[in-house]
């Protein structure tokens, strides 16, 4: 006995909302990347160029997210009876790989400058204007995307929000490096680029950790919370063997409920429907609930 969300409705609306957020963030990231990278090239700042490259990978991550959401939004079919929601998780993994590539690009450039001893950064008031402006945009994007990720329970938006937050932290590091260069410490520019590299690697780790939680079928809802929803239904004496898995936005649950042994098949079926509705009412991100009816005759495992 199970109840599944229709393809059209909450699921499709959620995917559409995620898609809109990704488009908005994509255009903002492209603007930020262009401002930082091209002024970094013009001023010879390695850390500003590194920060610009990081923002480019933010944009690439948005594109990956859009592709992943397009695939995840497809309805269940014969080959994928549980739907395609995990494509959103796969998109998060690709974003993690892009972060690793960005870390390599930024780190190798910084090491090259430190090894050669050639420091070319020129600091002007415009440098600080560019970095402060792009930092404000990044912080705004991060706040907006993180709120949407929590509301929509989206792994892609969560990964991308962390990515953008790391970009903001990197920008703060770049500003510190530019101040040091202006005070007569030119080596600070590539050193801060290395700090950028560490920040990107830390972000990549966080993205992989969340994606692997889904792919390893980690429990998504505490067992006691699901049990509380089930036993609140009149006629349910207890519930056990409770399991949940899936993405944060599309959870699959199954549980066994104990009922009066004298209950008819029709009554048991109706009760199972009530349990499914109760679980869905308490946890709107549950896409499918499978309820197994057991007689409460003292012979349960």
TrEMBL record:
Q: Say which domain of life the source belongs to.
A: Bacteria
Alphabetically sorted, this entry's keywords are: Membrane, Transmembrane, Transmembrane helix, Transport
All copies of the Cation efflux protein transmembrane domain together span 22-215
The membrane topology noted for this protein in its Swiss-Prot or TrEMBL record is:
Multi-pass membrane protein
Q: Which InterPro entries match?
A: Cation_efflux, Cation_efflux_CTD, Cation_efflux_CTD_sf, Cation_efflux_TM, Cation_efflux_TMD_sf, CDF_Transporter
Q: What is its main location?
A: membrane
Any one GO BP annotation for this protein: intracellular zinc ion homeostasis
Residues forming the Cation efflux protein cytoplasmic domain are: 224-295
- Location relative to the cell: Membrane
Q: What are the protein's GO molecular function terms?
A: cadmium ion transmembrane transporter activity; ferrous iron transmembrane transporter activity; zinc efflux antiporter activity
| Record's GO cellular component terms | plasma membrane
Query: Can you tell me where the transmembrane regions are?
Result: 21-39, 59-77, 89-111, 123-144, 165-185, 191-208
**Family per similarity comment:** Belongs to the cation diffusion facilitator (CDF) transporter (TC 2.A.4) family.
Task: Indicate what this protein is called per its UniProt record.
Answer: Cation transporter
| Species for this entry | Gordonibacter massiliensis
